[in-house]
Amino acid sequence: IMSMMLNSCFSSFESTKKITDSDVDKEVKNTPAAICSVIDTILSPNYLHWDAGKRFVVLDKQVKLILSPATADLSEGDTLVYSGCGTQNMFGVEETVLLNFTDSKGGAYSFDTGRSQREYAATRSTAVPFLLDADLLDLAREDVVGKHYYVRTSYWYDSDDKVIAGKKFVKVKILDVVPGNKVYSLKVYFDYAGLQAAIYVSAADNSVASRRFSNLFSTSDIRNYYPAISDENWALITESKVQAGMTKEECRLALGVPAGIDRIPTYDTLQEIWKYSDGVYLIFVDGILTKYRK
To answer: What is the mean pLDDT of residues 90-112?
Structure first.
């Protein structure tokens, strides 16, 4: 496998909702960084380092919109093979790089990058829309398949690619890493107590940092960081559920950080209303959950 480009790695606790109240950051307890996967750090190298025969997997049939000729008959999962590069100058300006590919049926296509060789010389990586570098996929498999992790999200998919209610902070075994979709380029399959499910993951060249592997999986048992939480409440947290009497920290673990917070001081108490973008809201009095709507 051709060497790939290393990117910086970071890890933070799961945050599926973007917080808008800066005070919550002071109240949220983050677990230490526990994992830095190849999936989060490897970039497809600059095309100048590609060899003829380098493979790419089609993530979406919309790839035909960026290829010439536009009649490309390609589907998700098809493989394109890099056959070399050229340049094109259509409007009398600096020549742009063309990346050439062939498919398994002998069809030939080109992708106009819209960038010059001079611009690419200063670029670390080359990402082609709707395509996944097969070398990256192979490295991801080598890094995580067969290993055990604690999953940090209950948003799972079944074998028919339908959303199912999973559990968070439970131990799973990684079964495979396959091509994802045009938004999240990788799909990680795992086993939990005999149930096989999957989660979509962003590769390092994707801007959706919340879907990075290190934000969705951990090598550490998150339960160990919260010894004060009762087993009853922890069981609810793993199922993304809340109940009256929970603390703000327990609710954040169960549902993620809220989209917004309203604080209403009264004569002798402080009431907080946590609002989520999906319509869920929680009402706390002096830091304890009293009412909620899910």
So the answer is: 88
- Residue pair 111/99 in contact (Cβ under 8 Å)? The answer is yes
Taking a C-beta distance cutoff of 8 angstroms, is the pair 283, 292 a contact? yes
Task: Say how far apart CA 80 and CA 98 lie, in whole Å.
Answer: 15
**How far is Cα 164 from Cα 168, in angstroms, rounded to an integer?**
12
Enumerate residues 6+ apart whose C-beta is below 8 A from 286.
269, 270
DSSP for 227-251 reads: TTS-HHHHHHHHTT---TT-BHHHH
Q: What DSSP string runs through 148-166?
A: EEEE---EEE-TTS-EEE-
Of 175, 123, 226, 47, give the one whose Cα is nearest residue 237: 226
Its pTM stands at 0.84
Mean pLDDT calculated for residue range 274-280: 93
Dihedral (C-alpha) 51, 54, 59, 63: value to the nearest 10 degrees?
A: 50
Chain mean position to CA 5: 19
